[in-house]
Design a protein that fits this description.
Strands 1-2-3-4-5 form a 5-stranded mixed sheet, sandwiched between helices. The longest helix is centred in the middle third of the chain and has 15 residues. The chain is globular. It has 166 residues and is an alpha+beta fold.
Length: 166
Amino acid sequence: MEEKISFRKAEKKDSALILTFIKAIAEYEKMSDQVLNDESKIKSLLFDKKVAEVIFLLLNDKEIGFALYFYNYSTFVGKTTLYLEDLFIYEKYRHCGYGKLLFNELINIAVVNDCGRMEWTCLNWNKTSIKFYKSLGSVPMNEWTTYRLDNKTLIALNKENKKGSF
């Protein structure tokens, strides 16, 4: 049987499937305990508010991979940046070139949308992905460190700010 590869943009009715992929990538990254997302949040944020987009990689009309991305703005470049939040291929389909196909589709989306660049983060322990990204010509931004305020800290800081503590 000849393989049929295709891509499709997620629709609101795919919210449960998107959540399945999110849980699968969280399990792969050993972060399952951190998934707070649910179908209603996905429906609201991805499809009603349109804060991000999802594409699926299909093999013979079956979703085997997904990518979730959004656009931000580069003040230096003066163009949008396609920011890849998640890219995931089910384990039994890895090392067959499907990840590269999905990544190339994202590159195409970035070019079609005149993005100045494409960015993402990768866990330092994920040597397989790092090797793959470098094989495409990407470079790690070692001079930059990602910082994060979690929700609990955001709420506490906001409470302090409202007291006029600055």
